[in-house]
Amino acid sequence: MKAQAISVFLGISALLGISAPAHAQAASEGPASSRPVTAPSEAVPERDVNPPGQLIDPASEAGGSLFEVHGTVFERYRKDTSRNALTRSLRGFVTYGNANLTYNPAPVLSAYVRFGFELQSPRTGGRDYNTNYYQGTTGFRGAANFDRYGFVYHNAQRGLTINLGRQDEALDASSTLYNQSFKVGLHTFLDGIALIQRLKSSTIQAYAFSEDQYRTRDTRNGLYALRGTYKPGKAVTLGLTLAHFASSTDNSRAGVATTTNYEGDVVLAQGASQLTLEYAKSDAETQNDLYYIGDQYKLTSRDTITVFTYKVGKNADIGQGTEYFNARRGTRYIYGHFFSTRVEGVLFYETAYRLAGAEKNTSTRVTLLYSF
């Protein structure tokens, strides 16, 4: 299937990824083995299994059928431990899938809708859906809904892309500042508009969103951002993000701080290695900074290793929307292997420490992913 139409489902995040095989699709929690191409001037580390729906920049390929369908399914074993005064352990299986439909009525216009689901065994941690809305507490827990939909205008000659609808997005190079693309179900994504303008060696992006809140009576939180990237040379990409998160006191996320966030990142690609450095700070009075340092190394055409360390202050990311643990520092080790162009296996290990307190968390995950 043509990657152009498929990429619609990522919405804006796909415009912020790095090169990877066209079939690669996402799954969750941290840079890993294969994340798809995005805007020419943008580069992002990869996830532990490619978050759902993350595919290729629509500018990267031309053509497309009237209707196109693609999807991702994966099975994961996950074990999480938390050590403080007591040691607690959660372990079990996660089954995830999505099906994405794109309708292309014109060369520059597409409509998209995605159906996603996630099921978990009773004692499994790390739910990637809104637990306030999906109330499963016994037996298999999970979520299933049409969770993204909208329209994309893409004019390759002018380098302009506009995405209007319910979507996800990433606002930085490493997903430390904000990225919810690995989520699934209702009340996890953003409603609004994203504009991307590509120039010769740079990209300018503008976003205006409101959160899809849990309760319909809620006053929605707002997210507004500008991001620019510049590529001074083949091996270097520079990025800056300015964002504002407006938190309402009258909704189900009332405890999240209103912040203005300033972020800068550098991506250095040399041979088989890609190094990403990022730092961000908000105007909150306390716990207001974050950083990311990571390297992705391509061992062979099928094998990739990613190692990175991060710290995210409680009020440092945008609306506590980091892809990693908020209010913690941690290190992740990820190995990915492609058995074929559609089948990927991923081994994942993380240690994380709460910034305030003595709690230590570990997570071990084994994932087998198939994309179609």
CATH architecture heading = Beta Barrel
Question: What's the CATH topology name?
Answer: Porin
Categorize the overall geometry: globular
**Average predicted local confidence, pLDDT:** 82
Largest sheet: 16 strands, antiparallel, barrel
Radius of gyration: 19 Å
End-to-end separation in angstroms reads 9 Å
Q: Number of DSSP helices?
A: 1
Walkthrough of the structure:
With 372 residues, this protein is an all-beta fold. The protein has a single domain, classed as Beta Barrel (Porin), CATH 2.40.160.10. Helices cover 1% and strands 51% of the residues. The chain has a 16-stranded antiparallel barrel with strand order 1-2-3-4-5-6-7-8-9-10-11-12-13-14-15-16. Strand 15 and strand 16 form a beta hairpin. The longest helix has 4 residues. The termini are close together. The N terminus is likely disordered.
Task: Please render the helix and strand layout as text.
Layout: H1 3-6, E1 67-83, E2 87-106, E3 109-120, E4 141-155, E5 160-167, E6 190-198, E7 202-211, E8 222-233, E9 236-246, E10 259-270, E11 273-282, E12 289-298, E13 303-312, E14 328-338, E15 343-354, E16 360-371
Antiparallel strand pairs: 1-2, 1-16, 2-3, 3-4, 4-5, 5-6, 6-7, 7-8, 8-9, 9-10, 10-11, 11-12, 12-13, 13-14, 14-15, 15-16
